[in-house]
Amino acid sequence: MNERQFADRIGNIDGQLVEEARYRRRNRGGGLRRFLAAAAVLALMAVSFTVGALAFSREVPIEQETIELPGVGLKLVLPDSWKGRYRVVMDEDTLGCDVYVKSIYEQEGEWAEAGLLFGVYKEYDYPLSQKEIDELTHASNWHFFSTPDATYVISYAGDVQWDPSDPEQEQVFRQMRAEIDQIRFLVDGIPVH
């Protein structure tokens, strides 16, 4: 290598060092920007998680009203508005229950123990197919569903279940009767229709 070639190489090395220094200075601010952007994203994620958790905690009731049929694995999850307004009478023979409007059921006199909203009973000791259930459920006061071991019927009251001279009883009964569709039926935690 002669002197000229050596000088050119040193010049190139010098040029490369200058370019690297310029590149590092240009990109030094980019690292700070990236760090600030990542911090902002993390802060937004934390805030949105907190807001979401607060909203979720308001939507899901802590304690829901339920009726459980022992030995069946059937749970009825009732509307929140029913709290303190219903009465359950268990029937050990049919592994079922009757559900009443509490204020009507517990009154004195001629209409005592009225207020039946519906009953849930074991109808067959074996499960029915969906086709068989569809054939049975065409009547408006019955609804059937099967568990792995049996078939149950939900029987709705078909006659007057309140004192006709008391419009308040009628209003309470009709309101709760209209909310029966909001009840969720769960067998071993799985919804049934």
The total domain count is: 2
How many strands, what sense, and barrel or not for the largest sheet? 5 strands, antiparallel
- Counting DSSP H or I runs of 4 or more residues, the number of helices is 4
Order of the strands making up the biggest sheet:
3-4-5-7-6
Run of helices and strands = HEEEEHEHEEHEE
What is the total tally of β strands?
9
Q: What structural class do the secondary elements suggest?
A: alpha+beta
How large is the share of residues in beta strands? Answer: 15-25%
Instruction: Give unreliable regions as ranges.
Output: 57-61
Give helix % range.
Answer: 40-55%
Word description of this protein:
This protein is an alpha+beta fold and 193 residues long. It folds into two domains: 60 residues; 127 residues, no CATH class. The protein is built from four helices and nine strands, in the order αββββαβαββαββ. The strands form two sheets. Strands 3-4-5-7-6 form a five-stranded antiparallel β-sheet. The protein has a four-stranded antiparallel β-sheet with strand order 1-2-8-9, with no helix packed on it. Strand 3 and strand 4 form a beta hairpin. The longest helix is centred in the N-terminal third of the chain and has 57 residues.
Q: Which key phrases capture this entry?
A:
193 residues, alpha+beta, 2 domains, elongated
Give a nutshell description of this structure:
The chain is built from four helices and nine strands. It has 193 residues and is of the alpha+beta class. It folds into two domains: 1-60; 66-192, no CATH class.
